[in-house]
Write a structure and sequence with these properties.
The chain is built from 20 helices and two strands. It is mainly α. It has a two-stranded antiparallel sheet. Helix 9 crosses helix 13 and helix 14 runs antiparallel to helix 19.
């Protein structure tokens, strides 16, 4: 059975999706089956991670066809790390989802909703596992189509428009990706990532390969919401159902960043990407703009979901900045932030989901007095917010510390100063929420507002606590990120 784990990782959620859809109005049973599938998928991810934690690589031949002729799933320390993130978030979001989804989605559509969620989950897992370039495109489409449906099910009528905007930009992104993959196939005659890496050096000095690199980089940048290609993300996160926002904010952009890393380091190679094409000189300005501009925009938002959505764009900038340093330490910081930001932003959006459940919305005026009315929820928001800012003893601090080290290692002290300054911007927009919740009186002081139900609150508190645990005891995540960086860079100093 252990030999079949790579196939099971995708098959569990992919086969559960149509079964859940056929349950119709049996919404509670749909939730149970989806929950079991997500927890089983998480268990498989942990088993795979344990097998490759020492730096080994698992190669799984689909159907017994040896690569590069057949489809291959390949697991190393890098994508096993991403699988754990997807599994952890999907497992913890399901207890949260039961009450939240029942409130935000009509009963007749709940089974369809969970089916789409499982498809989105399976697509992200498939993207991460596969070692076939065309399959990356296929799984991107599976995940994206399901995500469009999930977003469109939001209560606000603007959710449909948000899903449509995401569809247009997502389609452009996957089209660019497919064109780039097509160019690679024309020049090499293979789609296997490992085989591509072996054959590309012979044809790397051609316009076709450079064009392929450009198309793939732009296509994936649209998917990961790199500034200024981020326009789909704020509306998608703002108007999607609370559970969808939690899941997508913690997983979708992380998987896209992993794909960028896999192509840049694993296919094209460090020398081609950073020496011949000087990719760092393009990524670094975009990353810095992506950190500063969305952070400034977030400061002026009055809707907390939208505020955190712009914050997510800024956090993508941090991850890309680490990549742009073109060093092991910088890449380690980026991979570390995939996990730390996932748990931090999931905790924040879960807290927001609790507020939506009780207050009906999350504008700053609606949050007035929430600190006294919902103390556990707001306490979780504050702690997770401290992690987002990068306060010591939180997971966010561990990431920013490594980013600062990477900047200073490269002699880029102005960027180190800028990183400290942008942390102050994060403090400003988190403070806006804290001020409204703790220092403003609600418009109707006689209205009784209870704390969020335990089904919503417990996953929120668990993720919030994890931001402190991995901030205080960060050696495991740091070492895992280093192993993943080494797997991607393949001995590059």
């Amino acid at each position: 059975m252990l030999e079949q784990l790579p196939a099971l990782q995708v098959a569990i959620t992919l086969t559960a999706a149509p079964v859940v859809m056929m349950l119709g109005r049996a919404s509670r049973l749909a939730w149970v089956l989806t929950t079991l599938s997500c927890w089983a998928s998480f268990a498989v991810a942990l088993l795979l991670f344990n097998q490759v934690a020492d730096g080994s690589v698992i190669s799984y031949e689909m159907g017994g066809w040896a690569p590069p002729w057949g489809i291959e799933y390949s697991i190393d320390a890098a994508n096993a790390w991403v699988l754990v993130i997807i599994g952890l978030i999907s497992a913890l979001v399901m207890p949260f989802a039961r009450r939240s989804v029942e409130q935000e989605i009509s009963e007749s559509r709940i089974a369809l909703f969970y089916s789409a969620f499982l498809l989105a989950n399976a697509g992200l897992i498939g993207i991460t596992l596969t070692a076939d370039a065309f399959n990356i495109f296929v799984f991107f489409e599976i995940s994206a189509l399901a995500s469009y449906a999930l977003i469109a099910m939001g209560q606000d009528r603007r959710a449909v428009l948000s899903a449509y905007q995401y569809l247009i930009m997502g389609t452009v992104g996957t089209t660019f990706l497919l064109i780039g993959i097509g160019f690679l196939y024309i020049m090499t005659g293979t789609l296997n990532l490992g085989d591509l890496a072996a054959r590309l050096p012979e044809v790397s000095d051609t316009r076709t390969i450079r064009a392929a690199f450009g198309f793939i980089a732009v296509g994936i940048s649209l998917k990961l919401a790199l500034f200024p290609l981020h326009l789909w993300l704020p509306n998608a996160y703002t108007y999607a159902p609370s559970m969808v926002t939690v899941f997508l904010s913690a997983t979708a952009t992380k998987v896209a960043i992993y794909v960028l890393l896999r192509f840049v380091y694993g296919v094209f190679g460090f020398e081609f990407s950073f020496v011949e094409l000087s990719m760092a000189w393009l990524l670094m300005p975009l990353a810095l703009l992506g950190i500063v501009v969305p952070s400034l925009v977030a400061v002026f938002q009055t809707n907390v979901k939208r505020l955190l959505a712009y914050s997510s764009v800024a956090q993508v900038g941090y991850m890309i900045l680490g990549i742009s340093f073109a060093s092991v330490l910088g890449l380690t910081a980026s991979i570390l932030h995939l996990f730390n930001h996932a748990i931090t932003k999931a905790a924040l959006f879960m807290a927001v989901g609790c507020l939506v459940y009780r207050l009906g919305g999350v504008s700053l005026t609606q949050l007035a007095g929430a600190g006294q009315r919902m103390p556990w929820t707001m306490g979780a928001f504050v702690v997770a917010g401290l992690s987002l800012i990068g306060i010591p003893l939180t997971a966010g601090f561990v990431t920013k510390w490594h980013l600062l080290q990477a900047a200073l290692e490269g002699g880029l002290w102005p960027i180190a100063v800028l990183l400290l300054g942008t942390s102050l911007l994060a403090a400003l927009y988190i403070w806006k929420v804290v001020e409204a919740a703790y220092f403003q009186e609600p418009e109707d002081s006689t209205e009784v507002v209870h704390e969020a139900p335990l089904g919503l609150l417990l996953p929120t508190l668990l993720l919030t606590a994890s931001t402190v645990v991995f901030g205080v005891f960060g050696s495991f995540t740091v070492q895992s990120a280093r192993t993943a960086a080494a797997a991607l860079m393949g001995g590059v100093p």
